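Slack export, channel: ligand-projects

TW: morning all. Re-posting the request from yesterday since it got buried. We need the structure predicted with the small molecule present, not the apo form. The ligand is zinc ion; the SMILES is in the block with the sequence. No rush, but it would help planning for next week.
GE: picking it up
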Amino acid sequence: MKLFLKYFGILVISSTMLIACKEKQQINENTKVWAWLSGSFISTQPDTTATELLEYYFNKAKETGVDAIIIEVHGGYPKTDSTNITDFVDYEAINIINKTLPYAKKYGIEIHAWIWTTNRCEKNLRAAHPDWYQVNAEGNSCLDIKLYNREHYRWLCPSRPDVLEYLKDRVAELAKIDGIAGVHLDFIRYPDAILPYGLHESRGVVQDKVYPQWDHCYCEFCRANFKTQTGIDPLELDDPTENAEWMQYRWDAITKLTNALAEEIHRYEKIATAAVFASPEESRKLVRQDWAKFTELDVIFPMIYHKFYDAEDIWIELATHDGVEEMAANKCKGYLCSGLFIGHVPIDKIDEMIGYATNGGSKGICFFSLEGINKIPNYWEKLQESITKYKKH
Ligand SMILES: [Zn+2]
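GE: finished. pasting the full token output, ligand included:
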């Protein structure tokens, strides 16, 4: 009996150790599951509610098989609206990360700080540097008009060196936090020259071509810069979208900014990622974002929210495929991971949608968002089943 207990004891210890080792195993990048989560509740809700919600979402995410959470720490309505125009540190973002980290550690889930990048609407920044903001082809700054009637649609000019320095500081103050896995760049683009097609009706716009009110950046810096390079003032172009150099100028501005920010994130040995529009072609056309040239990023997440593009489900595969091909042609160092919108992924079609992304060449899969999953009855359970199958592949 004693002998049996001894063996049994060793067995128990061994299995516990095995489990412990298993949890420390590296995530398999090929089937890594990511999810976006809005972090605004952490700063808007009382501490006890925020704590309960963090516990709830991390526990659910772990059960479901999510390996990495991309948590929004800077969004459209940042609280940093003080009149202090000399201190731009995003204390709210740092606070959100610090409150989240214990749960990331407890559940063994990676945490990535999700920030809005060129779309910055902090009131102190707007007061201090109005000249940094983009100007449309009618000569109006996006500070003076409410683009698409959205208060938060205020966009920094990606060509200005001061803007790059400002954004490097914002990225660095997050990347340097111990325990954080990476920094995630969202809204790293121009404002929509054309909105995704499925949104035109609900937003009340007619955009059969690019109209000047939605065409940016014609700020003084960009006009002078482009004129030095080409001898042309872009404001004088009859059809700016037909001018290849002017389109290229704007694509390159975002590409250079993104790659420089990726390098800044890497200085702190953290993972640099970005959320981009669905396919390279649509991204260049709609928001001047040539993301297949974001060569320095570790992971690029095209948000293939296909119904916003009036597209069939199979388009998830086609858009993924186009992105993977273009990234390879441009020798991108990172990989593509398709982002799916829960609202466009019916509960009985989760496997099918993941399948389209996988067939297109997506490495891993990302879901928008944990809150979205939470709103649909039984979605957590169904998603868990699908993820379990996905990870066995
Ligand atoms: Zn500009």
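GE: first-pass observations. The mean pLDDT is 92. The chain has one domain: 34-392.
TW: perfect, thank you
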